[in-house]
Design a protein that fits this description.
Layout: H1 8-25, H2 30-37, H3 41-44, E1 60-64, E2 107-111, E3 114-118, H4 120-123, H5 127-130, E4 133-138, H6 148-151, H7 169-181, E5 189-190, E6 196-198, E7 201-203, H8 208-214, H9 219-243, H10 246-255, H11 259-272, H12 281-293, E8 299-302, H13 315-337, E9 344-348, E10 353-354, E11 366-367, E12 371-376, E13 383-385, E14 388-390, E15 400-402, H14 422-433, H15 438-444
Parallel strand pairs: 1-8, 1-9, 4-13, 5-8
Antiparallel strand pairs: 2-3, 4-12, 6-7, 9-12, 10-11, 14-15
Helix pairs in contact: 1-9, 9-10, 9-11, 12-13
């Protein structure tokens, strides 16, 4: 027997991991401490709790959101003309050629029973995913990147738990579903995308590679996690015994699992994320599904790119849309492998869409008048919601905007939802898809109405 000499690289790795764990013991993110210990974050913050709700038909949510303003809206179903008189003939799609096909005129394919036309990459998604895929056309009412923080609050239309103030979309969805889902965390987790907050507190982005490193299969690493968990259980229980109610002590007992159980949680997470390599969108969706599979958070946010801020060229639109199809397929395969395909709603929301007519550089400018929300889930009726129309009622179209929406049949014919209410209506419909009651939806979302025709 002999002692193996630790290399400089190995020492650097061990030191970094140890420092990470020590930071969590001290002033690290409460979300990460809760993730490691299995103790609800609110207990770590000393907040009071209500009894857990019975599990209903609530669904986990995965949100993709970015402040770039992706051109997903420029090649999605609903933007291609159906006949020669259709004003959408003036929408400019990427010309075929140079190895690119299926963008200029689109291809016909099915979303469930709905026949649609869009850029060819959308037709390559798995058929069973397409059978629960929706494309909801709406406005975001801004052309500024910096307004992303306002868009994810629906410009103040999303309210707090009491129907006052304002909240972000991920915050509201997590608030309303965490008890029914019995998750460890009540707040959302972020593994990518733009920054979010929860009740005024910044939610740190937990990079997939960092989480993988933390939960690597290492006995000493897991031992430190178990010790950390025991520390918080003991200290919190002492405080609750002095100051808490019998109901609060009972609540804590629900989470006071054995050391073996805590180590099992860490080991399971480590085993689920072995294929994560970096922090790209594919790794983000892998991490998101793993976190939901273990019931850690009700909502996870990330960032899937569909072309970015493409003022100068639409080449990124083609390249990144192709990558995005792979990201969505990975997410779908992971959800099915975890038997979560019917328990998760996915949605994308960026700060704005892009112009459907090119600028002088051959790229696309910001377009707050039209954005396409990509949604997926067992409660989603596949197909197109709403539509687009020229910004000028007469003459040759120079640009396009979202139409109003008929809430019953989801088309733009005879709309009872005005253009100005399309964003909050999309949010209300998403909340309904995730299992929220009409009463809670009307408390949390001010204005608009549920698009019943968009739900299965």
């Amino acid at each position: 027997m002999y002692d193996k000499k630790i290399t400089a690289f190995e020492q650097q790795y061990l030191t970094r991991r140890h420092a990470l764990i020590k930071s969590i013991l001290g002033v690290g993110s409460v979300q990460l401490r809760s993730l490691i210990t299995g103790v609800p974050a609110a207990l770590l913050l000393g907040n009071s709790h209500r009894a857990l709700a019975d599990e209903g038909d609530f669904k986990y949510t995965i949100f993709s959101h970015l402040s770039d303003g992706d051109p997903l809206n420029a090649n999605a179903p609903g933007t291609y003309a159906e006949n020669n008189a259709d004003p959408r003939n003036y929408v400019q799609h990427r010309s075929d050629g140079g190895g690119v096909t299926g963008y200029e005129n689109g291809v016909d394919f099915n979303l469930g029973a709905a026949r649609v036309k869009a850029a060819e990459p959308w037709s390559t998604l798995p058929e069973d995913l397409r059978s629960r895929l929706g494309f909801w056309h709406h406005g975001t009412y801004t052309n500024a990147h910096s307004d992303h923080r306002h868009v994810i609050r629906f410009h103040g239309a999303i309210k707090d738990q009491n129907g006052a103030g304002s909240a972000q979309l991920a915050e509201a969805m997590a608030d309303e579903t965490h008890q029914g889902l019995n998750t460890i965390l009540k707040e959302p987790l972020s593994v990518g995308g733009s920054s979010i907050t929860y009740r005024g507190r910044a939610i740190p982005v937990l990079r997939p590679s960092a989480i993988k490193e933390l939960f690597a299969s290492s006995a000493s690493n897991l031992d430190e996690m178990v010790a950390l968990r025991d520390h918080f259980i003991d200290s919190t229980y002492k405080k609750m015994k002095r100051e808490g109610t019998p109901a609060q002590l009972k609540f804590l007992d629900r989470y006071a699992l054995s050391r073996v159980d805590a180590q099992e949680i860490a080991t399971n997470l480590g085993s689920l994320i072995t294929d994560i390599e970096e922090d790209n969108p594919s790794d983000q969706v892998k991490m998101a599904v793993a976190l939901l599979q273990l019931g850690i958070a009700p909502t996870v946010t990330l960032g899937i790119r569909f072309g970015g801020d493409n003022h100068g060229s639409i080449d990124n639109e083609v390249e990144q849309t192709g990558y995005a199809m792979k990201d969505l397929t990975i997410m779908w395969d992971k959800l099915k492998a975890a038997n979560l395909q019917d328990k998760v709603v996915f949605a994308s929301l960026n700060v704005f869409g892009r112009t459907l007519r090119y600028n002088t550089n051959g790229g696309r400018n910001h377009n707050g008048m039209h954005h396409t929300m990509l949604v997926a889930g067992s409660s989603i009726k596949p197909g197109v919601v709403g539509g687009i129309e020229p910004t000028k009622p007469t003459g040759t179209p120079v640009e396009f905007k979202a139409t109003g929406i008929n809430s019953n049949n989801r088309t733009s014919n005879n709309p009872d939802i005005a253009y100005r209410d399309t964003l909050v209506s999309a949010g209300k419909t998403l909340a309904k898809a995730a299992g929220l009651s009409n009463e809670r939806i009307n408390i949390r979302f001010n204005g608009g109405k549920i698009i019943t025709g968009a739900l299965s």
